[in-house]
UniProtKB/TrEMBL annotation:
It holds the Pfam family ABC_tran. Residues 1-24 are annotated as: Disordered. It is a peripheral membrane protein. Residues 28-258 form the ABC transporter domain. GO terms for molecular function: ATP binding. Signal peptide: none annotated. Keywords: Antibiotic resistance, ATP-binding, Nucleotide-binding, Transport. PROSITE patterns: ABC_TRANSPORTER_2 (PS50893). This is ABC transporter ATP-binding protein. Its main location: membrane.
Amino acid sequence: MPDQAVATGGADGPDGARSAPSAGPAAVRVEGLWKRFGDQVAVAGIDLELPAGQFIGLVGPNGAGKTTTLSMVTGLLRPDMGRVLVAGHDVWSDPVEVKSRIGVLPEGLRLFERLSGRELLGYMGRLRGLPGEETDKRATQLLDVLDLAGSQHKLVVDYSTGMRKKIGLAAALLHNPEVLFLDEPFEGVDPVSAQTIRGVLERYTSSGATVVFSSHVMELVESLCDWVAVMAAGRIRAAGPLADVRGGAPSLQAAFLELVGAGGRDAGDSLDWLGGQAAR
Ligand SMILES: Nc1ncnc2c1ncn2[C@@H]1O[C@H](COP(=O)(O)OP(=O)(O)OP(=O)(O)O)[C@@H](O)[C@H]1O
């Protein structure tokens, strides 16, 4: 039985999923989404309504199904069951409409390594059907704001992890999408670059666009997001405005641990060989 992630009354949903009303019209609607890999159910029938114009965090422990969900929502992976609508358009039956409205920074981003950062953005602009002059203007501004202007002529293969995230973000933003999906956008990014990315994303959402990103870093999600969905074992455990999901807990981290089950294994005696006091 699929989870009912966002109920209208703010009551607890099935499986004890804490739920709350959404804040506005849905940018993305997920209905009964399922994905199985062999015997492994990665996503177990989720329903979600992601409100437009919000900074949305998708959080969950390792293996919860976040990447699988984002891959299905962005048209990179075909669901076994269910459907996804972006601004009312079906991701699988109306892919061109949807892809013109979204930007994606996927996990394990693959880039054209033998292009320079500047060339990559030029190529993305053409793919997106932007006029050359407009692409150049936007690329110059994005490279500048993301502190990549000095490396714009370097080949992408020579970029660091953080630089790759930033050029991937620039490529995802170039066509000014309505909804931006980011899988772990801050992973491997230094604090200065993280602050820069954050500034760009805050500016983007303040103009009415929607950001959906996955992360393990609760402090980051708590400080950035207006709206949060918590996943565990392929299901939505809670979804709604940040304050509602946090509930009475002192922090999102505490609420998260309560929702997904603290689950931290006590090593007990099983690692008794580890450490300075143990016999070597
Ligand atoms: N291509 C695949 N083939 C087989 N199993 C897969 C595949 N992709 C994901 N899975 C399994 O599906 C489950 C969900 O994985 P997923 O990558 O979506 O989780 P996640 O929440 O993104 O995890 P993490 O936070 O560790 O990145 C896991 O049990 C994973 O092993």
